[in-house]
Amino acid sequence: MAKQVVPEEKRRRRRPTKSGTVLSEGLIVDAALRLLREHGSAGLTARRLGLALDCDPSALYRYFRGMDDLTLAIGDALMGQALHGWRPTGHWRADLHAVGLRIYEAYVSHPQAAQLTASRVTGRANELAADEAVLDILRRAGFPLPETVRIYHAFIDQTLGFAALDAASLALPRASQRADDAKWQSTYARLPPTTHPRIAEAAPLLTTHMVTSAYPTALEMLLDSAESRLGAGTDGT
């Protein structure tokens, strides 16, 4: 059963933990990110968090309804990192490009957390701020409302989708990452044109392109499409 969250003003412990720490939501999220980085999603438990924070695991439920609520807070923290310091320039394409790269980079910098949170809808402050920013950029650019929503949907799903995909690769053991990347040289580059003519002709390019993220290219393609639709005056219906 979900536990009732203690109101913010009543959450603080009267005394610090044995290590002198005063718990807060942000401190717990930071500890959770460390545990995810070190142990993966299987290692994120209330017991491990209690040990990391030198507190009884039950104290965590003064801040979160459960581990799923903490997961949403982790996702929102990543979105907050993405938006930190960003300011719109008034140039819609440059602004969307910057926001997309910021969100992508914030998530892939925490691969284990990205896998856990990229598909979630947190409804929290940082996520709402990001959504408001993207929608505002598009509306100020002159996109009709239906087209704004279509582009926003494609933009955010593409960004988080690539972040989750690339995070999954980054979360692999290094030996597995190297083995996957090496396949483009050891297998694809050696296929004969008699059996795989298209792969053979593309192999020199595949070996360099396929070991990097396609997100920057996909983002540019999405922005190209949006720009052409804006120029054509489509109403998105």
TrEMBL record:
PROSITE patterns: HTH_TETR_2 (PS50977)
Gene Ontology biological process terms in this record: negative regulation of DNA-templated transcription
Keywords on record: DNA-binding, Transcription, Transcription regulation
Transmembrane segments annotated in the record for this chain: none
Keyword DNA-binding annotated: yes
DNA-binding region: 45-64
Residue span(s) of domain HTH tetR-type: 22-82
Pfam families, per database record: TetR_C_1, TetR_N
InterPro entries, sorted: Homeodomain-like_sf, HTH-type_TetR-like_transc_reg, HTH_TetR, Repressor_TetR_C, Tet_transcr_reg_TetR-rel_C_sf
One GO molecular-function entry: DNA-binding transcription factor activity
PANTHER family assigned: HTH-TYPE TRANSCRIPTIONAL REGULATOR RUTR, TRANSCRIPTIONAL REGULATORY PROTEIN
Name of this protein: TetR/AcrR family transcriptional regulator
Organism: Streptomyces roseirectus
Upper taxonomic lineage: Bacteria, Bacillati, Actinomycetota, Actinomycetes, Kitasatosporales
